[in-house]
Design goal:
CATH architecture of one domain in chain B: 3-Layer(aba) Sandwich
Distance between the termini of chain A: 37 Å
Oligomer: heterodimer
Strand order of the largest sheet of chain B: 3-2-4-7-1-8-11-10-9
Helix content of chain B: 25-40%
Strand order of the largest sheet of chain A: 4-5-6-8-7
Largest sheet of chain B: 9 strands, mixed
Structural class of chain B: alpha/beta
Shape of chain B: globular
Radius of gyration of chain A: 16 Å
Mean pLDDT of chain A: 91
Mean pLDDT of chain B: 96
Strand content of chain B: 15-25%
Low-confidence stretches of chain B: none
CATH topology of one domain in chain B: Peroxisomal Thiolase, Chain A, domain 1
Order of helices and strands of chain B: EHEHEHEHHHHEEEEHEHHHHEE
Number of helices of chain A: 0
Shape of chain A: globular
Bound molecules: zinc ion
Number of strands of chain B: 11
Radius of gyration of chain B: 19 Å
């Protein structure tokens, strides 16, 4: 994997609204046999919970609550992450009944609390070496 | 499928350790020293070995072969084992199974690692997760820690006592990377690495190696020091359990009935007929101070949320009811990934033989070692006198 050429965050993770009044939503999979939800969308039609080929594309609610979080003081090793530090990520429990791992956007890390209401946002993560903006989904306190 | 207790007895013939620290030498240099120490300890000759399993994570292709070339190629099968932080204990299990299943009579398990510098560059994550910075393992533990604190009311000070206890034990271990105790104040004042965890809540890295020789009863040179492998179990991941270190998310719709650690330790208890009450000494998995607290609970030694209180009361001290991480754990020993799981087993061997020096637990007859590994893996080893 050459990091320079990789699109860091897959843009297929969220919808691209055509009209201004439409809101962006995360895209996932739902099993029509067992009801289990997956994010990101599974690229093969196979439910890893009930082992059936019964997955359908689904859009998730934009709203959730912070289940866990940590503010990380330094970038992890490996050179894969090109965003700023400190940064924050954690688990978000989405209304639909799925836990999603996400970066958390805030200007005030001290204000973050478990159970806090958050909403989906798309934000710039970094500029790549060609000057293109690389964006990702995050959740932000409401 | 055979149960472990239906197979023949397997004995610990010998073990070898070296000091764990930062080496200028390569893994095959210090790793082969650990192997020679084990050979010496077992009073065996090298050409008696019938199979070798070598655990490591970052050493690359044929790393075990490189190590064994330092001792001598005899035609014995060498298999390299990469199973993250449970590589050493996975190598142990494979060696154990070879002897138990009567495929060979003498097999050796090796774990070694020369660590890359800085935090661990885990690649057990998908590209988008790496790009998002989700491979910060200290932060992944921190996420689990904050959830555990919320559920149980355990505090940062409680976790800090794990570091204090383990560093105190490490001061009695001549092979530990850190042999100097720390105070509660020092732990609490160390810098934040990933909220709420601080630097002294994290185990340090180290280079290191360990080796254990296992054999059938008739191959033992000395029966007086021999120990029996009562159980060696590995389980790898259950559906719906959230383990951010291994990039698995909790299922809100289908949480598991039994977690991974609970599953592996239940299999070990069922194979031996023992329960937590039978263990005289325990090595739990203290990559983070908080991890030791929830690990000892998952292993069945107390209920969820009780470990911090027991720790404060001294139950987990060397002279306590459940001596825990008597060699200082990962927190003092340091964490050479591929060696860690086997290093834990070596401490149980030392304790049950009565050869643990200043950190000796009185009358230790049965002991348990537990290693986790990204993947996830959970490995449990029970040894008895
Ligand atoms: Zn399903």
């Amino acid at each position: 994997m050459t990091i320079e050429k990789m699109t860091p965050i897959d843009e297929g993770f969220w919808t691209k609204p055509v009209n201004a009044d439409e809101e962006i939503q995360l895209i996932g999979s739902k099993c029509s046999e067992c009801g289990e939800l997956f994010f990101p969308e599974k690229n093969k039609n196979w439910c890893i919970h009930c082992y059936k080929s019964a997955l359908k594309k689904v859009l998730f609610s934009r709203k959730g609550k912070i289940a866990t979080f940590s503010v990380v003081m330094q970038k992890p090793a490996g050179g894969f992450y090109h965003g700023g530090a400190p940064y924050c990520y954690g688990c978000i429990d989405i209304e639909d009944g799925i836990r999603i791992k996400s970066l958390i956007s805030t200007d005030d890390y001290d204000s973050l609390k478990l159970g806090m209401d958050v909403e989906l946002v798309i934000e710039k993560l970094w500029d790549d070496k060609d000057g293109n903006e690389v964006s990702t989904f995050k959740f932000k306190p409401v | 499928m055979k149960n472990l207790n239906e197979m023949r007895n397997v004995y610990v013939a010998g073990m070898g350790l070296i000091p764990w620290k930062v080496y200028d030498k390569e893994h095959y240099d210090f790793g082969s020293e650990a192997l020679l120490n084990a050979l010496n300890d077992a009073e065996m000759s090298w050409n008696e070995m019938q199979a070798a399993f070598c655990g490591s994570v970052y050493q690359g292709t044929g790393s075990g072969h490189q190590l064994i070339k330092e001792i001598g190629l005899t035609g014995l099968p060498i298999v390299n084992v990469e199973n993250a932080c449970s590589s050493g204990s996975s190598a142990f299990r494979l060696a154990y199974l070879m002897v138990a299943a009567e495929i060979c009579d003498v097999a050796v398990a090796i774990g070694m690692e020369k660590m890359p510098k800085g935090p661990i560059p885990s690649t057990a994550f998908l590209p988008w997760e790496l790009a998002s910075g989700f491979n910060a393992q200290m932060a992944n533990y921190a996420n689990e820690t904050i959830e555990y604190m919320e559920e149980t009311g355990t505090t940062l000070e409680d976790f800090s006592r794990v570091t204090v206890k383990n560093r105190k034990n490490g001061a009695l271990n001549p092979n530990a990377r850190f042999q100097k105790p720390v105070t509660l104040e020092e732990v609490m004042a160390s810098r934040v690495v990933a909220t709420p965890l601080r630097l002294f809540h994290c185990c340090p890295l180290a280079d290191g190696a360990a080796a254990v020789i296992l054999c059938s009863e008739d191959k033992l040179k000395s029966k007086s020091r021999a120990l029996t492998v009562a159980a060696s179990v590995i389980t790898s991941g259950v559906y719906g359990e959230g383990m951010m270190m291994s990039s698995t998310m909790a299922s809100l719709k289908y949480p598991p009935k039994e977690g991974l650690v609970e599953l592996s330790v239940r299999q070990a208890y069922e194979a031996t007929g023992y329960g937590p009450e039978d263990m005289d000494v325990v090595q739990a998995y203290d990559t983070m101070a908080s991890a030791e607290i929830w690990d000892i609970e998952k292993l069945g030694f107390c209920k969820k949320g009780e470990a911090a209180k027991l720790l404060k009361e001294g139950v987990f001290d060397i002279d306590g009811k459940i001596p825990l991480n008597t060699d200082g754990g990962l927190m003092s020993r340091g964490h050479p990934l591929g060696a860690t799981g086997l290093g834990q087993i070596c401490e149980i061997i030392n304790q049950l033989r009565g050869e643990a020096g200043k950190r000796q637990v009185k009358d230790a007859k049965i002991g348990l070692a537990h290693a986790m590994g990204a993947g996830p893996n959970s490995s449990v080893t029970i040894l008895k006198k």
